[in-house]
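name: query_chain
kind: protein
chains: 1
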Amino acid sequence: MNLGVPTRSVLRTLVGSVVLASCALTPRLPAQAASTHVVYQGTQGPGLGKHLVLIAGDHEYRSEELLPALGRILARHHGFKVSVFFTLDSAGFIEPGSSRIGGLDALKTADLLILAIRFQDFPADQMQHIVDYLGRGGPVLGLRTSTHAFRIKDGPFAKYSWDYKGAEYPSGFGEQVLGETWVGHYGTNHEQSSRILPRSDRATHPILRGVRDLHVQSGGYQAYPSEGSDVLALGQVLHGMGPNGPPDTTKQQLPVVWTRTYRGASGQQGRVFTSTHGASEDLLNPGFRRMLVNATFWALGMEQAITPALNISFVGPFHPVTFSFDGYRRGVRPSDLAGWDSPIMSPDRPTRATSPAKSGESPR
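structure:
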């Protein structure tokens, strides 16, 4: 498909010369499985009998807010059982981006995996559950930094790393499953937002049913999805953070939403939905929220249940913070997010916001 931009291979070669500095990960320590997640159990709706596993573990874009809020919508309004997993500190509090996680054996019964993670090197026993899920070709939704979900230097799971060079699995999980790995920023975070423009020739796709007025706070990413990907929407970088900001005419429209399939080791094919957007503030946009709900149904092969009237209203208080490295709510345990009415997250919890990393310092 000609998107009016240089070929993927040419652009990937150009940006591939940029050396990305190391970003130290928190040392791994064992965590008790019961303390690493929260479960939302739906009781009525088309999702009854389906189990969704959501893993929040990025450093910047507040997936620890995004995924429980999305999970409640899917459970309360649509009947799914939703298990949301978090990375923790050594005391059992949510620490975005750490690699301390447990309980991922839940993937043995999962019908869908939703990821919003970055640079993870999970303990081997936990990573094995993800590998086994992919091996059976389970469907996947990958959001924002999940294009560079893993950074694993060696060992049996090294091929899943975002920058893996081996010919049998080039560029790791990002490219082989989601259809793209980390390439680069496309615009300036916190100064430029994005308008998501569904392609007119894909307007009837079930994921876009009832979706309109898509505007997101997270800045653009460069992405050139692999062959066979079905690009549903392009991103228009805007000047300013409002939906009516003028387009940045120096930026071409690039893919920001696409679908594809991958083949697991079992030979089974799994459906994949990828978006390079997905900060917690992006969920405030009804169009983006509806698209993620629709994508969940589509990935499960339940597109017949998608209607423009699907309930996408928030369940309980939702107070997303502006994304930044280290700017997360402190002192929150997964159990603090249990039930339908607990706040995500309580505005009484302190944050320690820091200035965003300089462009080019590290994949974000």
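note: The first helix runs from residue 8 to 16.
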